[in-house]
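User: Predict the structure for this protein chain, please.
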Amino acid sequence: MSPAAPHTSPLKHIAIFASGAGSNAQKIIDHFKNSDAVKVSLIICNKPGAGVLNIAANENIPAILIEKEKFFRGNAYTDELKETQVDFIVLAGFLWKIPDRLIKMYPGRIINIHPALLPKYGGKGMYGHHVHAAVIAAGEKESGITIHYVDEHYDNGDIIFQAKCPVLSHDTPDSLAQRIHQLEHEHFPKVIGKIVAGTR
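Assistant: Here is the predicted structure, written as structure tokens:
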């Protein structure tokens, strides 16, 4: 008998949902560029002219500019996700709430990053500079990032990973945001890799 072929796990496809410049999306794409386990196969964006659409074009990754009616009251683009064989959804600065239809289709397979230490400073309207301004106004001594699973409620799903940084006495929302971005870029791609590849 010939020896059994080594077991190779099939390639996992991820879709990145983003609304803005796409700095996290770029870091994730770079991280998996030479991976034989994980591939960024689709970019979903809800803002015409967003920087992440340029990134998709430069990286030759298919992109879909979605519209509200179909996303919230139609099929939530589930057909397009199936066609691309998407296994996981990663939210990288995506500002729309994920509809129940998608959550049911991808239970435990939608991952978000939040620029604060949940459960503090989460919920509707808490994104970007709004979060950092609230953290500073409250006199917090530390902030950070939270990577978590997505459920039916804003910033409510089970926490996967957190990393912390100090809040300095002279911080502005902009200066704190820079420190938070560094944490995001350092940790988000690695944590996604562990989750999607099933090693965690």
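Residues 12-196 form a domain with the Rossmann fold fold (CATH 3.40.50.170).
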